[in-house]
Design a protein that fits this description.
CATH topology of the largest domain: Ferric Hydroxamate Uptake Protein, Chain A, domain 1
Number of domains: 3
Strand content: 35-45%
CATH architecture of the largest domain: Beta Complex
Number of helices: 7
Strand order of the largest sheet: 1-18-21-22-23-24-25-26-27-28-29-30
Structural class: mainly beta
Distance between the termini: 45 Å
């Protein structure tokens, strides 16, 4: 039984907005009748989306009140199709998109889209701002063809995994490189729930505030990312933040949003049999021995008028043996997310600026879990002379959490406990744990509030209020650029930028915890920074009436440093005192650190020769000299 349930327990909570749904299926083809795989299918006005399979078929859950699907595909006209039934087939037509569309490519260089030898898709702020996701990666779901996004859970602070056009490595990293205003950033999360527990932390890209993003460009394939080197082999996601460009005078904008969340769906549970190892008499003694120490649900039939001694009477007298069909649903809270943004912009012919402050707070659907983020974003563009120009941008992000829920296969994972619990367990009764008796001294949960089973688990609400996983992170992402336009066809610029962050994580387990009866405390401090300095020469010249040439030559110096300090008190001397000096007498604390540093010097170039603006020849190259072995 446990092996079977392990498949469920390693997953954390899936939380999404609540709505009733209808399933719509169909097939998407081109005008020749051929199936189109990878077509993005999106419920209009939402972030609910899917993609067509290899045979062009799709299936999507449509909430009540939504009546339009949006179909988009590279090279095809985007279509909005009214939902007229449960089966909806669509024929897509070739795009009549203007041939001179300009897109942002690697290193911030702009090119005509038709001149590119690879796929680039752009999203404006309007495309993903309607649904206020705390993690901007989740905002891309259903918006970009060929992009697969997997949420680790629906809990607060949960990380997301993004893959562009399939995995390229079995054991290595398959995620794309994130670049913010020309500066590569670290998208690692350095913590996740696995087979043996742990807790998930936000991905690095989740620090980017959606309110400050003007545009996202997705570069797919090795050719698209060649100028960024091998770490961009899985593609690049370029994020351009908002600025005061095209602004005259002073402007102020204020936005505010509130989002509520509940579990979208729960497993289908049987409500015919209660807790117990076999269809025999049930008697709860102490939650450790006898029937009460069993966490399978093969017990006596429910709701037929039987009575049994249960945990709700602390084993003192029999009570009705009935089911609680909504006991899992009753465990969850309604999640709330609040976001407020104030932005000030201004500009004239010579200069512009933007300053933005955003406060986001989220309370999770798992009780007593939260995440807060404060973002200060500033940028400015200056035309110092007719030929000399400069710009800078800076992001400061403060992320904190008083508790990130434990996940994976761990007795402190509330999802695991709920999946193991019997259908006769009333979780609402357990919620008021401060007024419950204490577990018996002979149980693994001795001295902690009563639970339906004390052999394997503590009271889940006590765990969430007492055994906390905290996060405190400060991050700065910024760059400064100086350029000079020597002629109308030759420009040079230098740029330097950094991604710096420091974080402290703590994890504490109170005395009496099932897996840590003597208590536990862990503290991890991390520091990371990456600096990139570039010089770039850009040539853009019309050679003849038929030939046009662009050529870019540059060099980059990158330095990264990562430092980790950690300490563990495996057992505590004093209860409810969480620091590394509170170690039980005779027990040795665990201390350690790790440090890494690397440098990479690079040169790169890209060139394009076009004939009559319809025939293009492109060449790209890069060479790296790294201080570490590959």
């Amino acid at each position: 039984m446990k092996k079977l349930m392990l498949l469920f327990a390693i997953f954390s909570i899936m939380g999404l907005q609540v709505y009733a749904q209808n399933t719509v299926t169909g097939k998407v083809t081109d005008d020749a009748g051929d199936a189109l795989p990878g077509v993005s299918v999106l419920v209009k006005g939402t972030t609910i989306g899917t993609m067509t399979q290899g045979d062009g078929t799709y299936s999507i859950e449509v909430p009540d009140g939504s009546n339009t699907l949006v179909f988009s595909y590279i090279g095809m006209e985007t279509q909005e199709v009214a939902i007229t039934g449960n089966v909806l087939d669509v024929v897509m037509q070739p795009s009549s998109e203007a041939i001179d569309e300009v897109v942002v490519t690697a290193l911030g260089i702009t090119k005509e889209k038709k001149a590119l030898g690879y796929s680039v898709q752009n999203l404006s702020n309007e495309d993903f701002a309607k649904a206020k996701e705390t993690n901007i990666v989740n905002s891309l779901s259903g918006q970009i063809a060929g992009v697969h996004i997997t949420n680790s859970s629906g809990a607060v602070g949960a990380s997301s995994r993004i893959i562009l056009r399939g995995a390229t490595s079995i054991t290595g990293n398959n995620e794309p490189l994130f670049v913010v205003d020309g500066i590569p950033i670290n998208n690692s999360n350095y913590g996740s729930a696995g087979s043996y527990g742990g807790y998930d932390m936000p991905s690095g890209a989740a620090d980017i505030n959606p309110d400050d993003v003007a545009e996202i460009s997705v570069l797919k394939g090795a050719n698209a990312a060649a100028l960024y080197g091998s770490r961009a082999a899985n593609g690049v996601i370029l994020i351009k933040t908002k600025s005061g460009e095209n602004t005259q005078g002073i402007g102020v904008s204020v936005t505010s949003s509130i989002t509520m969340q509940n579990p979208l769906r729960l497993p289908d549970f049987q409500n015919s049999y209660g807790q117990g190892a076999s269809n025999t008499f049930f008697e709860w003694i102490d939650g450790q021995t006898g029937s009460g120490g069993v966490d399978e649900s093969w017990g006596m039939p429910l709701d037929i008028g039987l009575e049994a001694v249960q945990f709700t009477s602390n084993g003192e007298y029999p009570e009705p043996w009935i089911s609680f069909p909504d006991n899992i649903k009753d465990f969850y809270d309604t999640g709330m997310q609040y976001s407020e943004n104030v932005a000030l912009t201004g500009g004239n012919e010579k200069a512009n600026f933007r300053l933005s402050v955003t406060q986001m707070n989220e309370n999770g659907i798992v009780p007593n879990t939260d995440l807060g983020r404060t973002t200060i974003n500033g940028s400015s563009n200056l035309n110092l002379t007719e030929k000399l120009f400069a710009s800078f941008s800076v992001n400061y992000i403060k992320t904190s959490s008083d508790n990130l829920p434990t996940g994976g296969y761990d007795n402190e994972n509330p999802v695991q406990q709920m999946l193991w619990s019997g259908r006769n367990v009333d979780f609402n009764y357990l919620r008021d744990y401060e007024n419950l008796p204490l577990a018996a001294d002979n149980t693994a949960a001795a001295g902690t509030p009563l639970n339906w089973n004390t052999r394997f688990q503590n009271n889940p609400f006590w765990v969430l209020d007492t055994n906390l996983n905290t996060l405190d992170k400060d991050r700065v992402i910024g760059n400064i650029k100086l350029g000079y336009k020597f002629t109308d066809w030759f420009t040079a610029q230098v740029r330097t930028g950094t991604d710096y962050w420091t974080s402290i994580n703590t994890s504490n387990k109170a005395k009496g915890s099932n897996e840590y009866p003597e208590g536990y405390y862990e503290e991890v401090s991390r520091t990371w920074y990456e600096t990139n300095s570039d010089i770039l020469l850009m040539f853009n010249k019309q050679l003849t009436d038929d030939l046009h040439m662009t050529f870019n030559l540059g060099g980059n110096q990158m330095k990264t440093v990562y430092n980790r300090l950690y300490g563990v008190a495996p057992q505590l001397e004093l209860a409810d005192v969480y620091n590394l000096s509170n170690v039980k007498s005779g027990v040795t604390p665990i201390l350690g650190n790790s440090y890494s540093e690397s440098r990479v010097n690079s040169i790169y170039f890209s060139g394009s020769l076009s004939f009559r603006n319809y025939l293009f020849l492109e060449v790209t190259g890069r060479n790296d000299w790294s201080s570490v072995l590959p």
